[in-house]
Design a protein that fits this description.
Layout (H helix, E strand, L loop, with lengths): L1 H21 L7 E8 L10 E6 L5 E5 L5 E7 L2 E8 L6 E7 L4 E3 L2 E2 L9 E3 L5 E2 L6 E6 H6 L17 E3 L16 E3 L8 E4 L2 E2 L1 E2 L4 E2 L8 E9 L12 E6 L7 E10 L15 E14 L3 E12 L6
Parallel strand pairs: 1-7, 1-8, 6-9, 14-19
Antiparallel strand pairs: 1-4, 2-3, 2-5, 5-6, 7-10, 11-18, 12-13, 14-15, 16-17, 18-19, 20-21, 21-22
C-alpha cells in the first residue's frame, strides 16, 4: 500500500512539474490591454470584456479593475474581436490584430445609451510599446514570402535588418543539415544570438545556429529583436529570433510551392564555365479543424534537390 501511495505521489508531482514547464514559454503569445472610461473621463469598473479569436472561435473573458484597466494575456497571433459592455452604456466592439510577444492597446470611452445600440470601431488600433523598450521587427507570413530569399532559408531574413552581417565562414552541411546561417548582430559574436521556436529553446549553443530552421509556409509570425530585450531573454546579447508556427483554424487553408533553377532556365554566365546547375525546392502545408472551435491540426512539408553551393 505504501508503495502504491508513493507511486501516485511521484506521478502527481511529475505532472505538476510538466504543467509548470508548459507555462514558462510566454514568448509565443501576445496580449490585449487597455482602459475603459465614460465621456466625462471617469473610470468604469467591472466592465465585461470578451475577446474572441476570429480564426478559431475561442473566447476569453475578463473585467476592468477599480481603475478601469484590463488585460487579456496568452493570445495566439491573429485577428480578435473585442467586445466591451457595462450597465447603462452602449456596447462597444472592434477588431484588432495580435502579434507574437507584443501588446495591443484598446482604450475605450463608452457612450451613454441603450444596450440595443452597438458602437463598432473599424479603425486600426496601433500597437502599444509603452510596456517595453525592445528594438524589434515583426514579420508576418505574407511579408516573409515577399522577401527575395533565394533558398527560402528563414535565418537569412535577418540580413534585411540593420546591424546584421553574415560571418566569413559557415558550418559544413554535416554539422548544419538545416542550413542555419551564422551571423553577427550589433558587433556581437554569432554565439551570442538566441533562437526560439514556439516559445521553446531552439539554439545550438556550441554552433551558434538554430537547431530547427522551419519552413516559411509553416510560420505565423517571425520576430527579430536586436536590443533592449526583456529580462526573460537575458542570455542573448546579439539578436533574438522568435519563430511562431501556424495552427489549424475553423477554415481549411494550405499552400503548395515549387522553385526550380537550372541551366535551361538561367542565362549563361561566361565566368562560370560549364558547371551544372540544378536546384528544385518544393513542399506545402495544410491545416483545418478536427472539431470546430475546439481541436485543430496543421501539417507542413519541405524538401529540396540540388546543391546550394552552385548558386552562390
Amino acid at each position: 500500500m505504501k508503495t502504491a501511495k508513493g507511486l501516485r505521489l511521484v506521478v502527481v508531482a511529475t505532472l505538476g512539474l510538466l504543467f509548470q514547464i508548459a507555462t514558462w514559454g510566454q514568448a509565443v503569445s501576445g496580449k490585449i490591454l487597455g482602459h475603459v472610461g465614460d465621456p466625462s473621463g471617469a473610470v468604469i469598473a467591472n466592465a465585461a470584456i470578451t475577446v474572441t479569436d476570429l480564426d478559431r472561435g475561442i473566447s476569453s473573458t475578463t473585467t476592468t479593475n477599480e481603475a478601469g484597466n484590463y488585460v487579456q494575456t496568452h493570445l495566439m497571433a491573429g485577428l480578435y474581436k473585442v467586445q466591451i459592455t457595462a450597465s447603462g452604456f452602449a456596447p462597444f466592439e472592434t477588431t484588432v490584430e495580435v502579434h507574437v510577444d507584443t501588446s495591443t492597446e484598446v482604450n475605450v470611452s463608452l457612450t451613454i445609451g441603450e444596450t440595443q445600440s452597438v458602437v463598432t470601431v473599424t479603425d486600426e488600433i496601433p500597437l502599444l510599446k509603452a510596456d517595453r523598450a525592445d528594438v524589434s521587427t515583426v514579420l508576418t507570413t505574407n511579408e516573409i514570402a515577399s522577401l527575395p530569399i533565394l533558398n527560402r532559408n528563414l535565418t537569412e531574413v535577418v540580413f534585411a535588418l540593420p546591424g546584421t552581417q553574415m560571418n566569413d565562414w559557415q558550418h559544413s552541411s554535416a554539422e548544419n543539415p538545416q542550413g542555419g546561417v551564422q551571423f553577427s548582430a550589433n558587433g556581437q559574436q554569432f554565439t551570442h544570438n538566441g533562437f526560439l521556436l514556439d516559445g521553446t529553446e531552439n539554439n545550438s549553443s556550441g554552433l551558434g545556429i538554430a537547431v530547427i530552421n522551419p519552413n516559411i509556409d509553416a510560420l505565423q509570425e517571425f520576430k527579430v529583436t536586436t536590443g533592449n530585450y526583456d529580462a526573460e531573454f537575458g542570455s542573448v546579447a546579439g539578436a533574438l529570433l522568435q519563430a511562431t508556427t501556424k495552427s489549424g483554424t475553423n477554415q481549411w487553408h494550405g499552400s503548395l510551392f515549387e522553385y526550380v533553377r537550372n541551366g535551361q532556365f538561367d542565362a549563361a554566365d561566361p565566368f562560370a564555365g560549364s558547371l551544372p546547375l540544378h536546384w528544385n525546392q518544393f513542399g506545402g502545408s495544410v491545416g483545418g479543424p478536427v472539431v470546430k472551435n475546439k481541436f485543430f491540426f496543421f501539417f507542413d512539408y519541405q524538401a529540396r534537390v540540388g546543391t546550394l553551393a552552385l548558386l552562390l
